[in-house]
Design goal:
Blueprint (H helix, E strand, L loop, with lengths): L1 H29 L5 H35 L6 H32 L18 H8 L3 H22 L3
């Protein structure tokens, strides 16, 4: 069974990263875009990948937790550091990305996954403030945090240093 748990974990991780790739690509393309229709389309494209991201997250966690038990890895520090890194990266990315993109969606009246436009202070932003959100370096910061976190987790899982 251990191999099946690892396979579930790896496939979940691939789905999680693939969906994040859609959002990352949209966020990086968004930077400097002035056509409001294209901005709205990029935001919708990113939002559309979120459901797959959460499915991937559930699969990678379920498979990883099960593999941790079936492989007797819970006593190894590397597993706890990898799990802590995942949690820290998820929290950091959520805290940095959510208010930013919610404000931009609200300002441009772009509905979220629930079909509703976010009721945020973004609804009353000026064009200059919207441009400032679009020009924000946040996508690069998010890509850096996610990329470094992923590299650390993969290193821990492959090398099992402690």
């Amino acid at each position: 069974m251990h191999s099946w748990f690892v396979l579930t974990h790896v496939l979940g991780a691939f789905l999680f990263v693939l969906a994040h790739g859609v959002s990352t690509g949209a966020a990086l393309k968004l930077h400097g875009e002035r056509n409001r229709d294209r901005v709205a389309t990029l935001l919708q494209m990113s939002q559309g990948a979120i459901g797959s991201m959460y499915i991937g997250l559930v699969l990678l966690l379920a498979g990883g937790i099960a593999a941790g038990f079936s492989g007797s890895f819970w006593g190894h520090t590397w597993l706890w550091v990898a799990l802590g890194t995942l949690i820290a990266v998820l929290i950091a990315m959520w805290a940095i990305a959510t208010p930013h993109y919610m404000a931009l969606r609200g300002a441009l009246a772009v509905p979220g996954a629930d079909g509703k436009v976010p009721a945020t202070k973004g609804a009353s932003l000026s064009d200059a403030q919207i441009d400032a959100l679009i020009d924000s370096p946040r996508p690069y910061l998010l890509a850096l945090i996610g990329g470094l976190g992923l590299a650390l987790i993969v290193w821990l899982m492959v090398m099992k240093p402690f």
